[in-house]
Amino acid sequence: MSAQKVLNLSDLEQDTAVRVEVDGVPMAVVLDGEGVVHAIGDTCTHGDISLSDGFVEGDTLECWAHGSAFSLRTGRPLNLPAYEPVPVYEVTIDGDDVLIDPTVTKAVD
């Protein structure tokens, strides 16, 4: 599978998450304060809650329900109650197009 357009870069607001679904895979897409676009799995690993309804601060996305914050760069939870990471997807920007391949996750050390 190849990367698919999920939205326009101009549609993203800084420090706000947007939920998209690519081939049945829910993702939260975020334009952070440094202008970097991130895509992580949209489902909190603690409570099956949509992360895109949460709060963006710096390079984290916090689940609104129980407060677990996930790194937008690694997908790792930074505090409890979540302890399992969410997937992080490669994002490609082509002009105004934001492209994501739901089968390609970033390697996290």
From TrEMBL:
Highest taxon of source: Bacteria
Domain Rieske intervals: 4-100
One Pfam family here: Rieske
Entry keywords, A to Z: 2Fe-2S, Dioxygenase, Iron, Iron-sulfur, Metal-binding, Oxidoreductase
GO molecular function per UniProt: 2 iron, 2 sulfur cluster binding; dioxygenase activity; metal ion binding; monooxygenase activity; oxidoreductase activity, acting on paired donors, with incorporation or reduction of molecular oxygen
Protein name per the record: Dioxygenase
Annotated organism of origin: Microbacterium aurantiacum
Taxonomic classification: Bacteria, Bacillati, Actinomycetota, Actinomycetes, Micrococcales
